[in-house]
Amino acid sequence: MYLKDYGVTGVVMLCLYVDDLLVTGDSKQETDRFKKEMMDGFKMSDIGTIAYFLGMKFVTTKSGIFFHQKKYATDILKMFNMLDCNSATTPCEPGIKLSTGEDINLVDSTLYRQLIGSLRYLYNSRPDITYGVGLVS
Fold this sequence. Notes:
With 137 residues, this protein is of the alpha+beta class. The protein folds into two domains: 3-67, no CATH class; 71-136, no CATH class. It contains four helices and five strands. Strands 3-4-5 form a three-stranded antiparallel sheet. The chain has a two-stranded antiparallel ribbon with strand order 1-2. Strand 1 (12-17) and strand 2 (20-25) form a beta hairpin. The longest helix has 14 residues, at 28-41. The two termini are 37 Å apart.
């Protein structure tokens, strides 16, 4: 589908995930016009300015739009009973080498995969943990 077929002359970006749709662009007028065309053809509603999308909180400031996953990170800590754990300024020791422990049966592999999957989504807003999460993945 070409947006110019809908009369859009600016840049309009569309992000679709299952039934969540995010529309943005370089012109409010063009974005609004595109959304109206979409609403004329599909059953949908416009909930206004983005605030929360796919676990990411969006905050508008004078400097621009920023996103974070503070709630998602807190939910991960709660889910894995780590809310009261000690924080670290360096999430992963540089040059660390991991090895298999002697008794690998001590780790619940399903729980481990859930934790790693959660952390892999969290590093969308936390590039400082990307290397460490990749290492334990």
